[in-house]
Design a protein that fits this description.
Order of helices and strands: HHHHHHHHHHH
Distance between the termini: 70 Å
Helix content: over 70%
Shape: globular
Strand content: under 5%
Number of strands: 0
Number of domains: 2
Radius of gyration: 23 Å
């Protein structure tokens, strides 16, 4: 086990080696996808993933957040583990490797469990972020696989709204004890908000660009995206966290596209008026003169 623990002076070299190893193995796997069978590709990717996972397990425990080199190793191990499990699914006879919802479900469960373990044992916020993303994808795939959905996006948008609320609540709950993990969960909530926008109105971007007409969207979906964007912005300001702020900006852009593309008769009644009133009210409250004694 001692051989897997780098000298602190050479830790950055180890991180570079891990990144190079991941790039090389992924390149080999893709280049020989049509030449090698799934078995050899599984062995190659699994061996590389096992090496990096062993290094991560053997790494000394840090009192504060893990060293950057360990985060790099964990991300590379995640990528290689994903490829290894995808090749294993292919070797076991999966029809579409990591495209079928059933395969994504069991692979996602394993990857989420692995990332969650490292998030707890190594206090790795990047593992929390990745675990949250994979968990969301796994939930969506599970519902598609278990219920054989004719139009998955109609169910997914409801699930994404629920997952957004759960992730934000988890972030708020961890704010005091694990602040970096709290931000990671909020970041995932921001991504699920964008997922709601895509699931509800994925084709509107092309409609606006091409001026090919609009489609009706229930105002409740626009409200869900707007409310989540506002919550992200509030968290970004209160916590001084950049990630939620960027995602809030993207979510607000998604809201604008959704709200602007759902009517052929321009009017200030509706979202323009509501948002404008909120803006003016907030500015007036912030800029009002203080009462003198």
């Amino acid at each position: 086990m001692a051989y897997l623990r780098p000298d602190p002076a050479r830790a950055s070299i180890l991180a570079g080696g891990a990144i190079a190893l991941a790039v090389a193995i992924v390149l080999i796997d893709i280049r020989f996808a049509n030449t090698w069978s799934a078995g050899p590709r599984t062995l190659v990717t699994a061996a590389a993933a096992a090496l990096l996972l062993a290094i991560a397990v053997a790494a000394p425990t840090e009192e504060n957040q893990p060293r950057p080199w360990l985060s790099a190793v964990l991300v590379c191990a995640f990528v290689l583990s994903l490829f290894a499990l995808g090749n294993l699914a292919d070797a076991l006879g999966a029809d579409e490797q990591l495209s079928a919802s059933g395969t994504i479900t069991w692979v996602g469960l394993l990857i989420t469990g692995l990332l969650a373990w490292f998030a707890l044992q190594r206090d790795s916020a990047v593992c929390t972020l990745l675990a949250g993303i994979v968990a969301v994808v796994t939930v969506l795939a599970f519902f598609d696989w278990a219920f054989k959905l004719d139009d998955p996006t109609k169910t997914w948008r409801w699930l994404l709204v629920v997952l957004t609320v759960v992730l934000m609540a988890g972030g708020l709950a961890l704010r005091e004890t694990r602040p970096r993990h709290a931000i990671a969960l909020v970041d995932v909530a921001g991504l699920t908000t964008l997922g709601v926008a895509v699931a509800v109105a994925g084709g509107l971007v092309f409609g606006v660009i091409g001026d090919s007409g609009t489609s009706g969207i229930a105002w409740g979906w626009e409200l869900a995206v707007l409310a989540s964007a506002a919550a992200l912005a509030a968290i970004a300001i209160a916590w001084r966290a950049a990630g939620p702020g960027y995602l809030a900006a993207l979510s607000l852009a998604a809201f604008v596209i959704m709200a602007a593309a759902t009517t052929d008769d321009p009017s200030l009644i509706g979202w323009p008026g509501v948002v404008l009133l909120v803006a003016l009210g907030a500015l007036a409250a912030a800029l009002r003169p203080e009462a003198t004694a």
